[in-house]
Amino acid sequence: MKMILSLPIDLLILFAILAPIVYLLGVKMRTRKIVDIWAVVGFLVSAIALYLLYNEVAAEGIITHYWAGQQLRGIAILQIDMLSIFMAAIFLLIGLLTAIYSTKYMERDTGHAEYYTLLLLMVAGMIGVAFAGDFFTFFLFWEIMCITSYVLVAFRKEKWESIEAGFKYLIISSAGSATVLFAMSILYGMAGTLNFAYLSSTISNTPTPWSILALAMIVLGLGVKAAIVPFHTWLPDAHPAAPSSISAMLSGVVIKTGVYGLIRIMILIFAPAEYQWQLLLAIFAIITMTVGNVMALLQNDIKRLLAFSSIGHIGYIIFGLSIASVYGLTGGIFHIMNHAIGKALLFLCAGAFLFAVESRNLDDLAGIGKKMKITGLTFIIGSLALAGIPPLNAFQSEFMIILAGIQQGVTSGIWYGLSAIMVLNILFSVGYYLRIIQIIMLREPTDLAKKAKEAPAPMLFSMIILAILCIVIGIYPGPFADFANQAAEAALNLDNYVRAIVG
Amino acid sequence: MNLIPLSYYIVTALILYILGMYCLAVKRNMIKLIIGIEILTSAANLNFIALATYGNPGGADPLGHTFVIMSIVVGACVVAVALTIAVHAYRHYKTLDVRELKRLRW
Amino acid sequence: MSGFTGMDLILAIMIPAIIAPICFIAGKKIGRVGNGIMATIALAISTLLLLGSWNTILSQGHVIENYGVWIGLFKIEAIFLQDHLSFAISVLIAGISTLAAIYSISYMSHEHNHEIYFASMLLFVSGMIGVVLSANLILFYVFWEMMLIPSYFLIAYWGSGKPRIVGMKYFLFTHAGAAALIFGILTTFAVTGTFNLLELPDLLTGVAPGILKGIMILMFIGFAVKLAIFPVHTWLPDAHAEAPTPISVLLSGVMIKTGAYAIVRITLTLFPSQIMTVAYSLAILAIITVFWGGIMAFVQTDLKRMLAYSSISQVGYILFGIMCLNVIGLSGGLFNIINHGIAKGLLFMCAGAVIYATGVRDMKQLGGLASKMPITAVATLCGGLSIAGTPPFAGFASEWMIFAGGFAAGYTILAFLAVGAAIITAAYYLRMVKRVFFGECPSNLSNTKEAPISMLIPIAILTFFTVAYGIFAFVPLEIVYPAAEAVMKILVGA
User: I need a labelling partner for A200 at 20 to 30 A (CA). Which of A176, A268, C7, C58 fits?
Assistant: First the structure.
């Protein structure tokens, strides 16, 4: 049986479009909750479709699908390999858990119909980016994701913070998008097409000034989305300003689409052997992780701290990518997953604290973990996981990245030094994770924290699932690491990718 | 046929791009920032159109044009969202000057 | 390799780890005593399982349990190994932990959140046993860090003084050491392509000596922090003094010994020719540690802080014994690991009993407790004398062997200094016993009673072993001597 290959995206878009209608029905039937459940069902159905797709990809290696019907020079094409599936699976997982969490968390807000429509569309956009086989598709879904995320950041439009952060995010991010667009136009001018595979076969082996300009612009444009220092300034404002469930999405997965774009485009179109971007990117990565970790230590707002820590982790992932070996890329891709899980968990916990006491200030939150035991426990697990403490998940990917760096370092010393800086960074980051653990769990509760009640069941459900994933991946990383490895192999297997289109 | 050389278009597009970036960096009015975004997108669009035409002598490549049309639509969406936020900001602060929006740390 | 031999080792590691969440969930229902009994039983089972493989070790030299691939990508196998060396240390860990769990039942009665306490303690012990049994560097590192997290919470949550700052210091120090360690481990993989401890010695022989030396130094830093060698010892006095007493028992008695174990197991067996070049400098470092710990212990008035500094001093002896690089010194060092574990555990338990009974930990405010707490007094005396190396207690035999090893290795001056340091040790222990148990009893302590029976049982058991291992020193030596011989065989071969 031949299935429709864009099914996961189609379903999400379908559910998104129908969400307002469902909401209206719900209002008529006096059960407002129905739209929440509708969104959760949407993610579940899409996840099933993705699983079917996974089976097909596992069997065939790579599959292509012209979603516009016209077979025009590889345009409007979905090209799905293991890397795409891997990313889509993370997006859907976090999206699903966020939706479950939101059913309770967004209770005090209005505009549920818009909220879930945007959430579903955002995930659809992200999956589209991961599936895209050409720049046309890439850009279209990229903008779907961007626009929905702008609105979601500014969702609580009555608060000054959301408006300011939303505007700043919008300006910086769309400048990044426009830069990517410009780079696309240059590539189009050089190759006459926008298909990744064609571009790979024409541009990857012959660096010219124009293609290097395009590379620089793509790194700049996608780097804005991925929050590579110095293009990160929007992130620490935008991520805390959004509702916590959306912060979890933004920090957990949306920035990873930028990373995905970098992985896909830089390896496929600008072959590392010819363009020699590894060392430069690695230095960017080192700066990114250092800035993120140092800044995180200085924060007094829990969500802002977590946002800066995301920048630090993006640095680790980019470092893994910059090594451009199988191990490095595997580590990087694996870390995308581990960071998504850990950071989503922490943001959801922060949201639960916020839900309970309406404050994000660490001084107000002191000792709250003693009142909200389960949330506190999951918070500890998430923090320790992201601090890179074994046997929790992020350790597994971090050691792969460092290992890859050291392997590179055996032949050229500078990589050894860079890996050492990364180890120091991880060590340094432990400082602030420990600090938030101590404040949240070990201090005497403040007056505000004493009033806190344990989070409601749907929120706890999402957090517990993520915490369990942290532990399970940490203790038994085998299958997950293999999945990441398949994704990395697929990303590095240019021949396969190109042959599927060019023939 | 006496066409203007392609390089003119590309240079113009690059100048537009730099202009847009300059606008984003210097201007303090929200509407002007949004215009800056528009200039950036236009620069890329112009480049696309020029390359689409010059890549196929005697005709235009439909691909480039398709892309530009889509890009314009997407740009319109972005501007719509941006203007919405600007309106909310104006209601909140009674000004469009981003310097007034300085409660965030840049 | 003799196929599949059972699951004793992995069960010994996993049973505490599995009981921990059960303890946590059921904790509120079964209360403090229930929790404590549950933890004690879990740890006792572990101890028995570890003891159970003695016959196999005797006949085959070691027990290996291979559970196949753990992380397929790097072909990391889950392998556990128990030979004479790990048998000695792992049984010590499990045994002392069992006693500490019994001790906790009464000692922690003033505290709250017992379910988290016992769960953390079980995880802590599970990590320690795992470190000693794993035969794979990554697994080793995972357990190495796994003992760090629960012990951090145990210090930072139930500690005295400024527990959060002390906990942070402890965590950052040990974690920094661990970062150096993981760097060394990963470099090892980068040059050999395996983490397997059983295969590494052969593969490492082909590697450039410069790289090997670098790896060895990185790893040694990691172990030295855990072992609290001067100058990276500063976390120890705070952490060991401020932790709740049963945890001090575990930290001082056994946890720091994992560092010594790792030095023997990894540094000595993987880098034999490299260690020979630095052995003398490390022996000097060991003697500095001995003196530093001894002098600092001498000037303390806080009971637990004095014991903590004494641990630093003893750790110096252990390292000195190991760095003699001959059978007698090495087996003396290993023997001292056992003796110090038992005696220091005993002393901390006695100190805890005094603090429990009086609420005072400043030695100046104590005195004349011998008549009120006779059992504790006798036990303290035994422990103190054992550590000071007085016959017929266990410490005598091990310290004598360490000195003999020092002379045999040609470290004459250092060995004399080591002997001299033993006098300091004797001085501060006798002074402590005198101050706490003799002299005039302050009026506010006149109603002091002996500690409850569940605290006295572990004290009695440990006192018994302190005396018994002194008189029948051949029993533990039968375990550590072959271990030292096996290590020496590798060293001589290089």
Answer: A176
pLDDT at A39: 93
Least confident of B26-35, B53-62, C237-246: B53-62
pLDDT at A90 over 90: yes
CA distances from A433 to A35, A388, C75, C197, C286 (A): 36, 10, 31, 32, 34
C165: in domain? no
Residue A1 belongs to a domain: no
Do A174 and B20 make contact, defined as CB atoms within 8 angstroms? no
**Interface contacts (A, B; CB < 8 Å):** 129
The size of the A-C interface in CB pairs under 8 A is 78
* Residues C135-176: tens digit of each pLDDT: 889 889 999 988 888 888 888 888 888 888 888 888 888 888
Per-residue pLDDT band for C488 (boundaries 50, 70, 90) equals confident
Give the model confidence (pLDDT) of C184-211 as tens digits.
999 998 888 888 888 888 888 888 888 8
Q: What is the per-residue pLDDT for A29?
A: 86
Mind telling me how many Å the CA of C146 is from chain A's nearest CA? Answer: 6
**Chain C neighbours, 3+ Cβ pairs < 8 A:** A
Residue A353 covered by a domain = yes
Domain ranges in chain B are 6-100
Quickly count: other Cβ atoms within 10 Å of residue A216's Cβ.
14
Asked if the structure places residue C104 within a domain, the reply is no
Residue C13: inside a domain: no
The Cα–Cα gap between A121 and A112 comes to 14
CB of A186 less than 8 A from some CB of B: yes
B71 contact residues in A (CB cutoff 8 A):
139, 181
Interface ipTM > 0.90: yes
Contact exists between C and A (3 or more beta carbon pairs < 8 Å): yes
Q: How much is the mean pLDDT over chain B?
A: 86
Question: pLDDT (tens digit, 9 = 90+) per residue, A395-423?
Answer: 989 989 999 999 888 888 899 899 999 99
Q: Note whether A434 contacts C189, CB cutoff 8 Å.
A: no
Listed residue (A321, A309, A334) closest to A399, CA to CA? A334
Residue A66 exposure: Cα atoms within 13 Å on the Cβ side: 11
pTM of the model: 0.91
Best of A149, A152, A170 to mutate (most B CBs within 10 Å, chain B): A170
Contact C115, C123 (CB under 8 A): no
Contact A306, A241 (CB under 8 A): no
Chain A residues in contact with B64 by the CB 8 A cut-off are 188
List CB contacts (< 8 A) between A166 and chain B: 85
Question: What percent of chain A clears pLDDT 90, i.e. is strictly above it?
Answer: 53
Distance CA B69, CA B60 (A): 14
Range with the poorest average pLDDT among A461-470, A490-499, B58-67, C320-329: B58-67
Q: How far is A437 from chain C (nearest CA, A)?
A: 10
Whether C304 is in a domain gets the answer yes
> Which of A270, A286, A311 has its CA nearest to residue A401?
A286
Residues 6+ apart with CB under 8 A from C158: C108, C111, C117, C243, C244, C247
- Taken in order A34, A40, A43, A46, the sign of the CA dihedral is negative
Number of domains in chain A: 1
Helix (H) or strand (E) holding C69: strand C62-71
Total domain count for chain C? Answer: 1
Which domain, by its residues, includes A178?
Answer: 7-502
- Mean pLDDT throughout A364-389? 89
Fold that domain B6-100 belongs to in CATH? Helix Hairpins (1.10.287)
Does the bond joining C272 to the residue before it have cis omega, within 30 degrees of 0?
Answer: no
Rounded mean pLDDT of B56-63? Answer: 77
The answer, for C141 touching chain A at a CB cutoff of 8 Å, is yes
In a domain, A2, yes or no: no
What are the helix and strand counts (H, E) for chain B? Answer: 3, 0
